[in-house]
Amino acid sequence: MILRPPYAADVETAYAWDRDPELAFWNGRPPISISLSAARRDYLSRWEDPSVKTFIIEAGEEDGNLRKPIGMATLYDFRKGGCELGIKIGPENLRGRGYASEAVGLLADYTFDVLNLEVLRGSTLADNDRMQRVFEKNGFEQTGNGAIVSRYDNRRYTELFYEKRRGA
Ligand SMILES: CC(C)(COP(=O)(O)OP(=O)(O)OC[C@H]1O[C@@H](n2cnc3c(N)ncnc32)[C@H](O)[C@@H]1OP(=O)(O)O)[C@@H](O)C(=O)NCCC(=O)NCCS
Asked: Stretch 127-147: mean pLDDT, rounded?
């Protein structure tokens, strides 16, 4: 697996993922309804924005020749010596295969060793067993919880907060 910056050629893949209702639900927002060309403008400006670091997760055959984009991760909300992590694995049949666990490990190394931050934060819905497992496997601790109204369906959910500190 590698994490790399997004390119213009990734726009259509990112758009397909942002229109997927299941991914949107777990992300707490409605699937996007704007056109591909409007989305392209948004993505290209966000991917240039230095306050958000976006990564395409690529995985594939062992020899690396057939790697393709399978997901996306972001580091954002840089404050108090840390940042927040977001992640999704796009194709449904590629979830539950260990990809996010590996990607979160790489992102944690990047946060501590390259960005030199002290803490990596994350949150997920209390119903998201897979994401909780990904945090736990990577040495995150649950720091609290809160009520959240999802913009996906305007319903109330419980959100769990996690963090991993340098060296943990
Ligand atoms: C959540 C998500 C990022 C996790 O990525 P992933 O690559 O599927 O996760 P992994 O395969 O690395 O790890 C999942 C863990 O949960 C377990 N798991 C898989 N399906 C599960 C399920 N339905 N219920 C409970 N645990 C489950 C797996 O066994 C694995 O744990 P293990 O390694 O101890 O066996 C991915 O599934 C996804 O993109 N989901 C939709 C979007 C989303 O939820 N994003 C996160 C928003 S905070």
From this structure: 98
| C-alpha to C-alpha distances, 12 to 8, 9, 38, 83, nearest whole angstrom | 9, 7, 12, 27
pLDDT band at 64 (very low <50, low <70, confident <90, very high): low
* 59, amino acid identity: A
Residue 124 alpha carbon, nearest atom of ligand 1: 48
Distance 140 CA to ligand 1 centre (A): 15
Distance CA 135, CA 133 (A): 5
Predicted confidence (pLDDT) per residue in 94-118, tens digit: 999 999 999 999 999 999 999 999 9
> How far, in Å, is the centroid of ligand 1 from the Cα of 77?
23
Asked if 134 contacts 104 with a C-beta cutoff of 8 angstroms, the reply is yes
Ligand 1: residues whose CB is within 6 Å? 23, 26-27, 87-89, 95-101, 124, 128-131, 133-134
pLDDT for the residue numbered 39:
98
CATH superfamily of 2-118: Gcn5-related N-acetyltransferase (GNAT) (3.40.630.30)
Q: Which of 93, 106, 107, 130 has most ligand 1 atoms within 8 Å of its beta carbon, as the pocket-test mutant?
A: 130
